[in-house]
Amino acid sequence: MTPVTAPPPPAPYLPQRGERYRLVAPNSRTAPRLVRDFVGTLLYVTEHPALADDARLCVSEIVTNAHCHTRSPLIRVDVTVNRRQVTVYVTDDDSGSLPSPRDAVHPEQDEHGRGLVLVDALAARWGSAISGGPHGPDVKSVWFTLVE
What is the DSSP code (8-state) at residue 103? Predict the structure, then answer.
């Protein structure tokens, strides 16, 4: 049996200061709820309740994408919280194509593909990247920043 290891930490898009938290969850149908509750509770405890609902929605959408569109055994969530903002990275070990918001051709009929459109509308910044190197596996990270 091959041991399962968590994806390595993402390379930050900008230098970040603040408290850092991490959760590694199995890639299962319960992962979005588990991560959503973790991030929401974390933001209430760190005195960012105004960001909690948007963060819960954004992270739930991104983790749902990782669950539905990758075969990564684990999903890693890294959260950096400081006085003014929170940045959340969701990393998996499936370095396939980067996600992008999808325009709905028939919005009234399309029930899927709106997650990143929501993230784009709620986040101050967001993005995705594939990172790794010659000595490690490639990983995909999708991140977003919410600002008070």
Answer: -
Q: Three-class SS string for 32-81?
A: HHHHHHHHHHHHHHCCCHHHHHHHHHHHHHHHHHHHHHCCCCEEEEEEEE
Tokens coding 141: 């990270």
Tens-digit pLDDT profile for residues 77-92: 999 999 999 999 999 9
**pTM tops 0.85, yes or no:** no
CA distance 93 to 108: 34
As a whole number of angstroms, the longest Cα–Cα distance in the chain is 46
Report H helices in 78-142.
115-122
Q: What are phi and psi of 89, to 5 degrees?
A: -110, 135
Higher pLDDT, 132 or 120: 120
